[in-house]
Design a protein that fits this description.
Layout: H1 2-8, H2 14-21, H3 25-34, E1 41-42, E2 48-49, H4 52-67, H5 72-126
Antiparallel strand pairs: 1-2
Helix pairs in contact: 4-5
Length: 135
């Protein structure tokens, strides 16, 4: 239910965005200064309000800087020169990570299932058979 409510939101606070991306609020403010295209809306008293588009852009910056190891200058240049290519690469990596997570979950579930079945089978083999009833 909470996730459904979050999907309906138009704006997200800096703390929500920082938690979702896995960085500090300070880093988000810093990236705002370094990447001119990143301009969250400001509410009363200068409170930042991020849209889903802002979050997608921050995730792309995170991918370039933290995961790919690019410098801020390199990331700015990549976004300026080949934004579409960078977005495609990011989406591909994101999808592959999601698939990997699903596969690992499936493997773990199968391992647990198989282990339980093996234990039950061992129990059946080692326990004495019940006497047969006359038919």
């Amino acid at each position: 239910m909470l996730k459904e409510k979050k999907e309906l939101k138009l704006y997200y606070s800096i703390s929500e965005v920082a938690e979702e991306i896995g960085v500090s609020e300070t880093l988000l403010r810093f990236w705002e200064k370094e990447f001119p295209e990143l301009k969250p809306k400001r509410a009363g008293r200068g409170i930042r309000q991020y849209t889903k588009e802002d979050i997608a852009q921050l995730k792309l910056i995170y991918h370039l800087v933290k995961e790919r190891g690019m410098t801020l200058t390199g990331a700015r240049k990549r976004l300026k020169d080949n934004r579409e290519g960078a977005e495609r690469n990011f989406e591909l990596v994101d999808r592959l990570q999601a698939i990997r997570k699903q596969l690992v979950g499936m493997r773990d579930a199968l391992d647990a299932f198989t282990y339980n079945q093996v234990e039950e089978l061992k129990e059946r083999i080692t326990s004495p058979l019940p006497p047969e009833s006359p038919a």
